[in-house]
Amino acid sequence: MVVGSPPTVRRRQLGRELRALRETSGLLAEQVATELRCSTARISRIETARVRISPGTVHELLDVYGIEGPERQRLVALARQAQETGWWQEYSERLTWEYSTLIALENDAAELRWFEPSVLPGLVQTEEYARTVIRKTLPGHSAETIEEKVGVRMARQRVLSRETDPVRLWAVLDEAVLRRLVGGPELMHRQLRHLVDLSTLPTVRLQVLPFARGASACITGPFTVLTFPETADADVAYVENEAGDLYVEKPAGVARYNLVFDDLRADALGCDDSRAFIAEVADGLT
Q1: What are the residues whose beta carbons fall under 8 Å from the beta carbon of 24, sequence distance 6 or more?
Q2: Could you tell me where the DSSP H helices lie in 199-250?
Q3: Mean per-residue pLDDT over the chain, rounded
Q4: Is the pLDDT of residue 243 over 80?
Q5: φ/ψ of residue 131, rounded to 5
Q6: CA–CA separation, 190 vs 276, rounded Å?
Q7: Domains (ranges, CATH) in the chain?
Q8: Model pTM?
């Protein structure tokens, strides 16, 4: 069992259901820990999806909660599904827990609603744009480390083009993102043409928030709201900043970010006008 292993949607669901069963049983985490001869912290990590949990441990918990029959079978099967590992696990020792979690959730998501006021979202960056940004944010790191992180970022983008259930991306970009010459005019021209191409995909919606729209982009920093295929899987908001990454899971908090996103997209240009705007900015760099 790996402490700090990034949670998949299935593991989050399993943790929520196990916590609900414990609370329905009227048991404290300390009492369950005593029954399983483990620490209270371990019960907490299981319920918050901070650790992987084996089907055997699920059986032990369900014994304590008195769960039998089809419900027991369903939860044990869910535990088996939650044990499946993703491609990012091979980098687990070199990625932060927060970043690994983002990758895992992106992999399971149905849609990403993304706002960026400064740089392009990682899922739409070209390799050379990504390399330039990563070098800037990781000064002093070796070329090997930089290239590994570039490789991880490029691998993340496969969720947009995979054959089965590609993730839908809806991004609102502040005009500053397009105007900032990351890597110089030639590199930025290629990056913007890549954006134009991506915007023609049926699963990608890009909108530009022009400077002329006023203070709209000033109300918040970058954030992403992730939604999932199953209605039982609650939306998650991901907020990245210099103080550390934050995952917002409480419904009221996520609702706030959804409301902000709706306001931003309403103020932004439509998708067709945004595509033309991006192309115009790109043409101005040649």
Answers
A1: 65
A2: none
A3: 88
A4: no
A5: -65, -40
A6: 15
A7: 9-82 (1.10.260.40), 91-122+156-283 (3.30.870)
A8: 0.78
